[in-house]
């Protein structure tokens, strides 16, 4: 009975209509009998791995048929991909953070072995393949040890068909011999079939049948003995050489012809596909549907343990997950929103040239006599109103000196008092609108500030205004005049929400936390999925019979737990350490943060579906990060944006949700308020859209 039958197998990489598409399998016919070893030989790049991937159901032929153990790979209930086959890929494709024992248990559980049976199998393989110590991590095993563990994983469930892609590469001759002896024993005493590819052509002498492959064509398929007899050689290698030379020219012609014809054929067959091929498609899609809902406890357990181990055993991963938010928040709260300190402000006082006399109270006080308020050196009173939090006062003799210092950025700016500052003030007090024009000019403070640093300039300006208000109020009081004379005719009453002292930090904190949660989840997901894919663990797990949906569910479950813990950590940390007040419900805030993390995770998944490498994924994540940060109203109010851009920005995942969190924290609004639940709606819409894109992307890639 044939364990594997390939009939007119045709496969190309690239688009159907692309004239340069790469034909890898060129109408191959192959038969592997049960209870035999089939050695698939050929130069690097001739298509061996591609053929094996079609046999195990990882890829599909573009034309032709494959039957494995009497079933079409991928058909429902066929067990292919799945437990009926044992597959050892060319690369190691094991989780580096797992121990040897955990690795074998991982595959055993996927194949549905009971724990007791798994233990027995493990002990047998441990001895048979001389595996390293159970507790040794895969990443600390030598190349040869890793290969043996990988081989053991393919054998752990005692499959009916073993597909081994170069299992002996890099192994010492003794171990290679040991593996061949094992395979010969195995096939001799059972119906197990083995398909093995190898670069060491001569070791295939021990196979029952060898297939010699070149440029996607199977040149010959026979027993090693017959092949050597046919070409009168002593080695398979020489027989292979003869075959290649003999077929050389004619094969090229044939190949060109078949390339053209196969192209036309494939194009035709795209429309009128073979009935059984269509059947494959129908079966495949219903199998996918079934798989989507079918998960066994054992498989989920295997996946969850693997994900957890991967996470916990990577110290950088744990730091990233739980310490990184703390570091980020600490930096944010310590660095953003505090008043500038250690500034230097220049003072040029033409009224009191000797600054030390300014601190003689008798010269600076206001003297009230005969209903007249006599003002003396009151510029000093203003200078005293400038509190130390504004910065250090540096005295200059002339404005030129002060300007020079400001241009050299030694001071942030300077204030100039005219020589008759007090007298002018007194004139205005006494004569009001009848005072001389010159008095109005001389009573002004002339201020020059370095406006190139706006935040500092605004801070200085605010402090100078506050000091002036206090100064004039005190002056009015001393002169027996109403204080309110000093005020502008505008009164800011009790704020509706927040306070006049609210810091910028309070405004941007919700956005900062949300973007952090979102992008942390994005980065973790891309890192996990791309690493799994590039290590081959993803494909190997799929070939072991796990569906993409199961992998996703396992990841989402673990990631959700992590996100909830992360959000709790963030909320507790900022409220306890930085005294951030929440006037609303903590649960609502955490729920919205978790949803943010969830959409970040799906965004990461989407990136990893379409990006093959970490570099590419990082480019996309960073490229998305900056526009989102800049357009979400975190740094500058949306009202400052052009109308069209504002509308676009409103649809971004953080824009409205950030406002929602701010409304909960500052205004104490509940989820029943539209300004809060809108954030949830936007987030849920993003989650749904990203999820659909991920599913479509994953299905396309399958
Ligand atoms: N996903 C892919 N997209 C495009 N081309 C591919 C893809 N995978 C493989 N190829 C190309 O197909 C050809 C056959 O590759 P394959 O891995 O099947 O060869 P192989 O015989 O197994 O080689 P080796 O012995 O070196 O593993 C190679 O030229 C390879 O570059």
Explain this structure:
By secondary structure, the chain is α/β, with parallel strands linked by helices. It has three domains: 2-249, P-loop containing nucleotide triphosphate hydrolases (Rossmann fold, 3-Layer(aba) Sandwich), CATH 3.40.50.300; 314-333 and 503-701, no CATH class; 344-486, abc type-2 transporter like fold, CATH 3.40.1710. Helices cover 55% and strands 13% of the residues. It is built from 24 helices and 15 strands. It has helices at residues 48-55, 100-110, 115-128, 143-155, 173-188, 224-230, 236-271, 275-293, 297-312, 315-335, 361-364, 378-385, 399-407, 421-431, 437-442, 454-478, 504-535, 537-543, 548-576, 586-610, 614-631, 643-650, 655-667, 674-701; strands spanning 2-13, 22-33, 37-42, 63-68, 85-88, 161-165, 193-197, 209-214, 217-222, 344-349, 367-369, 372-374, 392-396, 413-417, 446-449. It has a six-stranded mixed β-sheet, with helices on both faces. A four-stranded mixed β-sheet has the order 13-10-14-15, with helices on both faces. Strand 1 and strand 2 (22-33) form a beta hairpin. Helix 12 packs across helix 16 (454-478) and helix 17 packs antiparallel against helix 21 (614-631). The longest helix is centred in the middle third of the chain and has 36 residues, at 236-271. It is elongated and about 135 Å long. The two termini are 30 Å apart. 38% of the residues are buried. Bound molecules: adenosine-5'-triphosphate (ATP).
């Amino acid at each position: 009975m044939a364990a594997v039958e390939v009939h007119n197998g045709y496969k190309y990489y690239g688009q159907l209509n692309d004239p340069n598409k790469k034909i890898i399998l060129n109408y191959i016919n192959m038969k592997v009998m049960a209870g035999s070893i089939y050695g698939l030989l050929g130069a690097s790049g001739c298509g061996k791995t591609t053929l094996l991937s079609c046999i195990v159901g990882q890829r599909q032929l573009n034309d032709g048929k494959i039957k494995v153990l009497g079933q079409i790979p991928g058909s429902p209930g066929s067990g292919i991909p799945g437990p009926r086959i044992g597959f050892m890929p060319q690369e190691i494709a094991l989780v580096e953070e797992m121990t040897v024992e955990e690795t074998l248990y991982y595959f055993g559980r996927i194949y549905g072995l009971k724990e007791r049976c798994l233990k027995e199998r493990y002990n047998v393989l441990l001895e048979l393949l001389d595996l390293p110590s159970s507790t040794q991590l895969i990443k600390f095993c030598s190349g040869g040890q890793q290969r043996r563990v990988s081989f053991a994983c393919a054998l752990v469930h005692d499959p009916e068909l073993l597909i081994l892609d170069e299992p002996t590469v890099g192994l010492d001759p003794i171990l290679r011999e040991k593996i061949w002896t094992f395979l010969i024993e195995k096939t001799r005493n059972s119906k197990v079939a083995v398909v093995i590819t190898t670069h060491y052509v001569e070791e295939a002498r021990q196979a029952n049948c060898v297939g010699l492959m070149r440029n996607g064509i199977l040149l010959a398929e026979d027993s090693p003995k017959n092949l050597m007899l046919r070409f009168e050689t002593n080695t398979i290698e020489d027989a292979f050489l003869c075959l290649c030379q003999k077929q050389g020219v004619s094969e090229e012609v044939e190949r060109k012809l078949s390339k053209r014809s196969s192209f036309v054929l494939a194009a035709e067959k795209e429309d009128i596909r073979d009935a059984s091929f269509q059947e494959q498609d129908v079966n495949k899609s219903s199998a996918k549907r079934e798989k989507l809902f079918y998960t066994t406890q054992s498989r989920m357990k295997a996946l969850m343990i693997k994900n957890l181990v991967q996470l916990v055993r990577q110290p950088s991963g744990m730091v990233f997950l739980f310490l990184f938010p703390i570091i980020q928040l600490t930096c944010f709260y310590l660095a953003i929103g505090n008043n500038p300190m250690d500034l230097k402000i220049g003072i040029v006082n033409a009224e009191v040239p000797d600054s030390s006399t300014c601190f003689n109270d008798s010269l600076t006080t206001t003297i009230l006599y005969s209903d007249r308020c006599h003002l003396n050196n009151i510029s000093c009173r203003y200078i005293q109103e400038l509190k130390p939090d504004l910065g250090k006062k540096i005295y200059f003799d002339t404005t030129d000196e002060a300007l020079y210092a400001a241009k050299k950025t030694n001071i942030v700016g300077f204030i100039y008092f005219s020589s008759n500052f007090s007298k002018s003030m007194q004139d205005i007090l006494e004569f009001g609108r009848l005072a001389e024009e010159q008095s109005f000019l001389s009573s002004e403070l002339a201020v020059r500030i370095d406006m190139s640093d706006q935040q500092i300039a605004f801070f200085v300006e605010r402090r100078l205004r506050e000091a002036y208000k206090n100064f004039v109020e005190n002056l009015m009081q001393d002169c027996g005049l109403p204080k309110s004379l000093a005020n502008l005719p505008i009164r800011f009453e009790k704020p509706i929400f927040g306070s006049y002292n609210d810091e910028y930090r309070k405004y941007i904190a919700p956005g900062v936390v949300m973007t952090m949660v979102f992008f942390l989840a994005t980065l973790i997901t891309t890192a996990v999925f791309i690493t799994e894919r590039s290590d081959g663990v993803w494909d190997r797990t799929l070939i072991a019979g796990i569906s993409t949906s199961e992998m996703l569910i396992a990841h989402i479950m673990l990631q959700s737990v992590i996100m909830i813990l992360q959000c709790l950590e963030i909320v507790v940390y900022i409220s306890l350490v930085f005294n951030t007040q929440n006037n609303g419900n903590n649960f609502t805030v955490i729920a919205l943060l978790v949803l943010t993390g969830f959409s970040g995770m799906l965004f990461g998944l989407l990136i990893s579906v379409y990006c093959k490498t970490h570099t590419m994924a990082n480019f996309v994540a960073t490229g998305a990060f900056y526009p989102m940060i800049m357009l979400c109203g975190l740094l500058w109010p949306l009202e400052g944006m052009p109308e069209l851009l504002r509308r676009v920005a409103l649809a971004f995942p953080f824009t409205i949700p950030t406002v929602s969190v701010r409304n909960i924290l500052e205004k104490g609004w509940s989820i029943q308020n539209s300004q809060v639940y809108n954030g949830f709606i936007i987030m849920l819409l993003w989650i749904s859209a990203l999820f659909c894109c991920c599913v479509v992307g994953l299905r396309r890639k399958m």
